[in-house]
Amino acid sequence: MTKFIPALAAACLSLCAATSFAQMSPSPSGERRSATPEQRQQFKERITAAREACKSATDQRACMTQQFCSKSENPAKCMEFAKKRSEHMQQRAEQRQKMHEACNGKRGDDLAACLKTQKDAFHKVRLEQRQKAHEACNAKRGDDLIKCLREQPGGFGGRGHHGHGGMHGIRS
Fold first, then answer.
1. Residue-wise over 5-25: b if at least 16 C-beta within 10 A, else e?
2. What is the pLDDT of residues 7-27, one digit of tens each?
3. Cα–Cα distance between 90 and 106 in angstroms, integer?
4. HSE-up (13 A, CA, CB side) for residue 139
5. CA within 20 to 30 Å of 168's CA: 16, 60, 81, 106, which one?
């Protein structure tokens, strides 16, 4: 558990950084650009500084988020994104916990098969939710479609591949 918290904090902060990368202006052709080496270096320095500042903190996740967002261009937006991402990650952790509880007492191949069944059932439900969301927003296109999908239960609009947040799905 002690190794899990810093790893989760680093994952959360890396996703927070995605918002700062996503704020890059699009290229003249309208396509998004990749982060420049300077931006990558700046990101690494911010993460390293946050880790150093939070080594002895009791709540490393909160400390690292605060340290990281305090140096961002828009700290309030960074903190809001971190909070939403944290809630999303907590929801997914609870879902994984339920999957493991459903497979309690199984070992080896039986456990793997049970977890696969649980995961497939979860994905089937998500696919059905996504289909309903698209049916509800059928007549809309472009930004109106994305807005409509985000308002649906499950928030399916404009979040990149497989519904993950990050710089690929955030519009600048």
1. eeebbbebbebbbbbbbbeee
2. 555 655 555 555 444 444 444
3. 25
4. 0
5. 60
